[in-house]
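Tokens in:
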């Protein structure tokens, strides 16, 4: 099995493909609720892949084998020091209006996740951004409601409460309250072979996350070949 990772939790149970299948409806419901909160639910966006989180090499190896039986590995790359696989499924997963063709399976790092399994989806927007600041501007132009989370000075702080009154974009406190508890992270992850800048903005609430970036996973994989 392909992995250069030493960190793992030997005592952790191996999560199975069957457990992932059983947990999909609950994950779907959480993601759809977060999409609705972010005002992204009915937008013409592409969901290029869904990602897993595991805490042990044993779990990653078991899922690699299981997913290889229902799809094919189209990328095996090192990102931030750990192996990350992209599997293209024979039959795409359905999540709301999205048809998701690929699954991201990262091997574990030294971080231990409180819950293994489905963790986030990744959306592609119409943007040529090469950095997170530009991506923020493009995202706000398309979806102004996100100004409560992505203010013009790009300080990515979660909204704490509904007592803040009107935002700079005129959103009422009730709207701000609906966004409370959402954490934001901006990053520019890049594989060792990638040549395509793909800045990412992540919106996380509870155990699930929605990431937004300008390039789909297949474009990123293609950049590895140049």
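Residues out:
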């Amino acid at each position: 099995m392909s992995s250069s990772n030493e960190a793992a939790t030997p005592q952790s149970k191996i999560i199975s493909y069957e457990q992932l299948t059983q947990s999909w409806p609950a994950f779907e419901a959480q993601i759809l609720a977060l999409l609705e909160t972010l005002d992204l639910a009915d937008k013409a966006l592409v969901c290029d892949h869904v990602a897993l989180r595991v805490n042990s090499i044993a779990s990653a190896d078991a899922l690699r084998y299981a997913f290889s039986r229902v799809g094919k590995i189209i990328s095996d790359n090192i990102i931030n020091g750990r192996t990350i696989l992209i599997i293209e499924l024979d039959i795409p997963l359905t999540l709301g209006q999205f048809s998701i063709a690929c699954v991201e399976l990262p091997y574990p790092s030294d971080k231990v996740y409180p819950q293994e399994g489905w963790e986030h989806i990744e959306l592609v927007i119409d943007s040529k951004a090469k950095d997170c600041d530009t991506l923020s501007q493009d995202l706000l132009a398309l979806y102004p409601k996100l100004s409560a989370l992505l203010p013009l000075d790009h300080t990515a702080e979660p909204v704490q409460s509904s007592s803040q009154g009107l935002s700079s974009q005129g959103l009422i406190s009730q709207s701000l309250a609906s966004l409370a508890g959402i954490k934001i992270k901006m990053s520019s992850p890049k594989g060792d072979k990638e040549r395509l800048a793909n800045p990412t903005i992540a919106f996380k609430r509870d155990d699930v996350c929605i990431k937004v970036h300008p390039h789909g996973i297949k474009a990123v994989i293609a950049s590895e070949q140049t």
